[in-house]
Amino acid sequence: MPLGSQHVQQASHNIEFLTSFYKGHKYNDWSITVGFYSALHIIENAIFVKKQLTYKGKPITIEHADDLPDCAAQSKIPPPQNLSSTPITPHKFRNILVQENFPDVGDFYMLLYRESRAARYKKHQFSDNEVALLAKAPLGSIVDWSNKNFATSFVFNLE
Amino acid sequence: MANRITSYLNSQEIPDILKKASVAVKGDLDGFFDGPQNFQALLRDALDRAKQQGVKEAIDKVAEGITEHLKRHIYEVIKTASLVESLAKKSLPNLQIRDCRSKFSFDLGWINVFFVINSSLEDEILFSNLLNGVEQAILKEHNFIIETFFVNDRDKEVDYPAIKNDYPFNIKTIELEKK
Questions:
Q1: Which helix (H) or strand (E) holds B118?
Q2: Which of residues 105 through 134 in chain B touch A, CB cutoff 8 A?
Q3: pLDDT one-digit tens code per residue, A60-117
Q4: What is the largest CA-CA distance in chain B?
Q5: Does the pTM exceed 0.90?
Q6: CB < 8 Å to A128, chain B
Q7: How far is the CA of B69 from the CAs of B57, B75, B171, in angstroms?
């Protein structure tokens, strides 16, 4: 499992990549996807740094979103009814943790997540205005929040 | 008993089959069988029948479990869709939900609900926030993880075949079938 610093490195790498092509607006669909994966690593770093989170209102100690089922079990919190023994994608666990623990950016993160999934059905038709509202703005808010609360120093300038 | 059998065996009037039966009673099973139906074959047949019975019972049990599972999944999907639809009607009157589809996996345990909407970008963002609230409510109240997604088709031609492929269940169809 990566350390927080590795998530920070990956997030910086993704943001740099996004910056390299964003202004051309030729790959707006990819701006959404890369924006989401930048946010994902910022959130994973936040989870790693904070560690003491809550799940369904009860305290858990956690370093990675993937560990949510085990951490919940250790805290004797009943698992969701549809959680099978086969591991499901950690996206779901991360989404739950983000919404409950990081309300300042939960909506931004979930918007990026859903838009990156919707990109598949939009046939590269994201307009410049769309990508500004649905990727640039939410990712910018998440970057600011991380720099302020988790001592990161991401450079985010898509102007 | 053994003496009586021995005495019968010595009698010329006893048919061969009974002679063999008496040999079997004395413990010599191999001598009892003559032809294709031997002890191993009978045992194999009995085991086969037991296996078939076991498989049938296992299949019945699994089918019963799947039916229950399916009912529960469909219930959660419909509940989610209804909740989203009624909340969107109230808070986002200009947003139109054109379609609502779903997919779920018993093995992996996930339930996804997908909406095709037609709305402004601002309402699209608010709709995503609304879905967050619904997901959290379902997790809190029903202890189910449900993921909700959407695509906004305003001024766009969305890839409907891909949507239908990814989300094969139409919620409206399920509701009609339930009635």
A1: strand B111-118
A2: 106-111, 121, 124-125, 128-129, 131-132
A3: 999 999 888 888 888 888 888 877 655 567 888 999 999 999 999 999 999 999 999 9
A4: 105
A5: no
A6: none
A7: 18, 10, 17
